[in-house]
């Protein structure tokens, strides 16, 4: 992860280059987005930028405010899994405000299932080296350092957006988020400066043995090595 990995697998390079230019031009400390390439809907209040967390690491985030009473609704941090998957997958494919137009395969359209109906969403590309997050020098991340870096990011992010420090805060994720989420949530629960309320994990990895056993059993059944009664 010492060198920032390319984001947006399967997407056109032109889109991501244009998107990066938009993010790079945002002013600090506001980081307010003025627009997104191909967006055919109102943008709403969204922000993006890098947060320097020390030790030569710079964490990229995208923050989307709910249009429904943002000051009183929860704030949810979202982490995609991997390890090594960009949380922009969540932003552009899953619960974010927009997704790609599936009819024309071009442009962005509103996501009817976005979680913004209930909460503001903070997407973090973690650890440094994933997506647009980067480190100044090569390093070897592990689960503990990733959780520590995530906590440092949150401390600095809340300093940048103090108006959200009082909101109920949740950590959520999927896949390897089964590791990322509880380890970061534990650190948040111990920090009195964070109004931590809970965590959520979907289809999470918690132990490599369990998913491996399930996959092996399915494979054995499909090739006829496991009979129907045993299956």
UniProtKB/TrEMBL annotation:
Pfam families: Peptidase_S10
Signal peptide start-end: 1-26
GO molecular function: acyltransferase activity, transferring groups other than amino-acyl groups; serine-type carboxypeptidase activity
Keywords, ordered alphabetically: Carboxypeptidase, Hydrolase, Protease, Signal
Domain of life: Eukaryota
Recorded coiled-coil stretches: none
Family: Belongs to the peptidase S10 family.
Full protein name: Carboxypeptidase
Lineage, top ranks: Eukaryota, Discoba, Euglenozoa, Euglenida, Spirocuta
